[in-house]
Amino acid sequence: MSKRDYYEVLGVSRNASDEELKKAYRRCAMKYHPDRNPGDKAAEAAFKECKEAYEVLSDGGKRRMYDQHGHAAFEHGMGGGNAGPGFADMGDIFGDIFGNIFGGGRQQGPRRGADVGYVMELDLEEAVAGVEKTIHIPTLAMCEPCKGSGSEDGKVETCSTCHGRGQVRMQRGPFMMQAPCPHCDGSGKTIAHPCKHCSGNGRVHDEKTLQVRIPAGVDNGDRIRLAGEGEAGPAGAPPGDLYVEVRVRPHPIFERDGDDLHCEVPIRISQAALGDSVRVPTLGGEVELRIPAETQSGRVFRLRDRGVKSVRSRHPGDLYCKVVVETPVNLTAEQRELLEKFEATFTGENARRHSPKSSTFLDGVKGFWDRMVS
Q1: Does pLDDT of 110 surpass 80?
Q2: Between the chain's N and C termini, which has fewer beta carbons within 10 Å?
Q3: What does UniProt give as the signal peptide span (predicted)?
């Protein structure tokens, strides 16, 4: 039976970003996880299909080869770099050839487990102050009954195909090269009595629950590495790592720019004209901001040390407050009458004297028409 297209398996387009691939894989893994579908062979097959697709598409080199050659890229020794069964690594091939000539050779040993990525969404307040979160991740864990060996009785035997070397010689035209032994998958050992719990794999699908401490000051894109919390390695090999990537949700008031914060502060026309003190929010509580008389809309005030102290800085940034003068709405009859009387005082040159920006604008318009006419 032919394999489905990897992009189709994950339900993404061929130009999907790394982040889109991660999200699609997480959705697929959670949907078909064996623990959520006990005894469902179809779900188990779909889970394995999703994992295989993600392992190829999440690796830049493997993805390029797949885009160019499809599934054939992983057959007949084509391509490079641990991409899948029969996928010959060209660096390993030349290493084997010249290593054998000069008495060297590739050091054998079990591969460590795969690294795992997790995206954690935080509120701005959580990212600034730091927080501890509980996360649940689908993963491959060491099989406890066999302690990761894959053997029911704990006994392993030397592979009869490669005689324990983990490598077999292959003839490719004029070249003699070495490849991982297909019988023992390069381990050099075989199991006479596979563990019934893990079917001899040494690993089982599981969901890991972890407490993750997020340090204060993290920002979008920051990654936290948890050593040894990735997938268990095959045949008892060391586990991979877990990388937690931070995503900060948009905030209704503040916008972060590095260590600095920005916000808008609405004030009334009377406050802008006469001056006033207003209370503005900060991440540490409200503070007083003095608005001087004749303040224009758009003016920015800086509050020192009211920004963010990031994980990479020694001192907090600043908070920049942009004043926005609001036009009053829902006026009462009395308010409308007062405004009409106020507006009536702006006549002729007197109006220009009280409206500096308007005067500049009108002068610019006059100059524009003078140039057009001349």
Answers
A1: no
A2: N
A3: none
Number of structural domains (the chain) is: 4
Q: Provide the domain limits for residue 259.
A: 254-325
User: Are 208 and 230 in contact, with CB atoms under 8 Å apart?
Assistant: no
CA atoms within 13 A on the CB side of 13: 3
Let me know whether 49 and 4 are in one domain. Answer: yes
DSSP state of 98: H
Separation CA 241–CA 227 (nearest Å): 5
Query: In the numeric block, which tokens belong to residue 280?
Result: 């503005």
In a domain, 106, yes or no: no
The reply to whether 28 sits in an annotated binding site is no
The reply, when asked if residue 50 is annotated as ligand binding, is no
pLDDT for the residue numbered 327: 92
pLDDT tens digits, one per residue of 199-211: 888 888 889 899 9
143 annotated among ligand-binding-site residues? yes
Q: Confirm or deny that 146 is annotated as ligand binding.
A: yes
Is residue 184 annotated as involved in ligand binding? Answer: yes
**Which of 77-86, 147-156, 247-256 has the highest mean predicted lDDT (pLDDT)?**
247-256
Give domain status of residue 109, yes or no.
no
Residue 195 assigned ligand-binding role: yes
pTM exceeding the 0.85 threshold for the entire prediction: no
Cα angle at 194 between 191 and 196, to 5 degrees?
A: 170
214 in a structural domain: yes
- Answer whether residue 274 is part of any domain: yes
Q: Is 321 annotated as a binding residue?
A: no
47 neighbors 55 (Cβ within 8 angstroms) = no
Which CATH number belongs to the domain containing residue 6 in this structure? Answer: 1.10.287.110
Are the beta carbons of 261 and 255 closer than 8 angstroms? Answer: yes
